[in-house]
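Reviewers of the previous submission asked for a worked example of the structure-prediction workflow described in the proposal, so we include one complete record here. The input consisted solely of the amino acid sequence. No template or homolog information was supplied to the procedure at any stage.
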Amino acid sequence: MSNFKSLAFFFRPPAIARGLCFFFIFYFAFLYLQKVVQAEETSVQTNELDPFVITAKGGFATSLRSSPWAINRLEGTELLYSARSLPESLSGLNSVMVQKTALGQSSPYIRGFTGYHNVLLVDGIRINHSAMRSGPNQYWSTVEMLGANRLEIVRGPNGIIHGADAIGGVVNIISKEPRFTDGEMSHNGQLIGRLSSAEHSWTAGVKGNFSTPDWFAELSHIERSFGDLEGGADIGEQENTGYDSRGSQFRLSRKLNEDTRFTFGFQNVFMDNVPRTHKTINGLTWEGLTPGSEIWRQLDQERNLFYGKFSWEDAGGFADAGLLTLSLHKHEQERQRMRGSVSGLATGGDFQYFGLEDLGFSSRFETDDPWGGRLAYGVEWQRESLYSGGYKFNSSQIKSAELVQGPLAADAHYDRFAFYLSDNFLLGDWSVEPGIRFSSIQADLERYYLKNSDSSTLQPSEKKNYKELIGSIRASREVMQGNFLFLGLSEGFRPPSLYDLTSTDETSAVERPNTSLDSESFLQAEMGFKGSSDSWNWEASYYHTWINDMIVRSPIESGKSDVLKANANGFIHGLEIQVGHDWSPSWSSQFRISLIDSEVEQLRDNNATGSITVDGRNYDPIDRATTRLMPPQFHFVTRYAPPKSNWWGDISILAVGKADDLSLKDETDSSRIPSNGTPGYAVVGISGGRKWGDNSSVFLAVENLGDIDYRVHGSGLNGSGRNFILSFSRSF
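From that input alone, the workflow returned the following structure tokens.
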């Protein structure tokens, strides 16, 4: 069943024509509204600065309003106080659904894609790597927000600038700009804390910095501890869901002159014993869910990032502005689980690990082009080195046998090289941004196995090469003062990763390596309109994404966790609307509505008469929704913030429809998705903050006022029940 039962006409062929008609109705309605407003106002003057963003152009500033991309910019201060982790801070945004496999494992879906189909950046440095697993994964939770100035979310394929994986969107967590003094050295610091009742959690962090006319340094550390999560009124405590984490970071910047600087940085995050509860006997039976049979499953993650950056502006010539980045990203993961019998007795388990080192270099430049525009170009190189292993243990946790590999190949390398070129120039009244990117990828598979429990299945060494040439053209036009129409036709791609090529049974599914997979390719057409008047602001966008050769996992046999990997075609399309209004100098409101629909080819088990045979078993191809398709979503926020006051307050409503348009894999995921789909829900919350003087502030929120039981579609645990959050900070 479609998620758009009330708008079924909108998502039926010809989908694009109907979508454009719907958009133009919306567009001209706002044009009419704008003319009415202008007729009543003789002049509209504003001193508000046009916000800038840097992610869409790879580190170079551009206007948020005139950019031909759908972009969100979120300020970091309030997010640090309210959100438990980076993924949760994105909840409620247009076409974003934050799935929660576990309390410490959250993954945003952006325009229907998650995991390795979205790119995560830290200060522009790529966190994605080739060992990231498919579907919603745990890696985004390893990025801490302490010290962040803002988040930028670019929705849609941005593969020209950010390469492979940038399909659903790109999220960039950006640190505060270094502050250099005009005279003597200065220093300051901040203490922060956060308490949450439903999470049984506490957070404590400290950061400090010092600056001189030429140097700036910042050091921060944060500790977090989470207990078992309290669900709604009927669920109560969700056992075996708590974990601990900590994170540290350091930055040192040297100003060489007013336009040139060098920055060195380091980050470390460690997450300790994060349980994956839905696969265990502690999983919920809510709405007919079936708990897993494992006694426990826990995951440790440690991520280290070392980087150096050299940037300059106004140098003239072919490299008028530039950004050179050298980085070393190290990610280590350990997973251990104890299996159980039907009666709940431990029967033995396994310990698996992998480690990946990603050495990368990127060079990005901007210069004036001959026809009055701005040309951007760059070269990128990465080398990823992977190792993995593990062992089995008995019911007493005594080691019993070595595993010849862990979740991925025991030894492998993944090399990437890319060159891109884009331009930005005026063509009449239009600002046009064409671009191309060439990428070359090589995977060296030196030790991998069909089954990691049998050394006799060792496969011969193999090299896989993938070359991709993609293009994009975006355009925007100011149709009225402060109102922009934007259009886009952008390609994205993703070559098979080391996970796709060599994975075995790292997650909920059991799968086999497959080195015959083709690269995935995507093409998205988008039309949008964004702007503002004296008291209104709005943004609307319709997009249609054509999917070609996406790697889809289908159940090998009904009721089993084994999956078959195959390339498949399909589409995802949707509508995003966001409208804000300032009712008075003190009151403002904003609402967002997101609608998404999709279809992709999958293989249905039909061993008797199936038309496709794989490994001696028959399957029928069938078009079904993509995995964990986001249901209709509505988000409403009203804020009261009196001018020149030291306090503010919010009330928010997040309403989500029933998610009953399921993929074949969704239908077998009985520990996370009820058989009839995930029920819809509406969650109401209130929050507020107050400043005391120049140095102290406090934040108080009550989430889920109704204490309802609900679950984000595809999650492995329910959302929190009524949750009181107290956050505070003190500067010194």
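The longest helix spans residues 15-40. We consider this example representative of the routine output the project will generate in years two and three.
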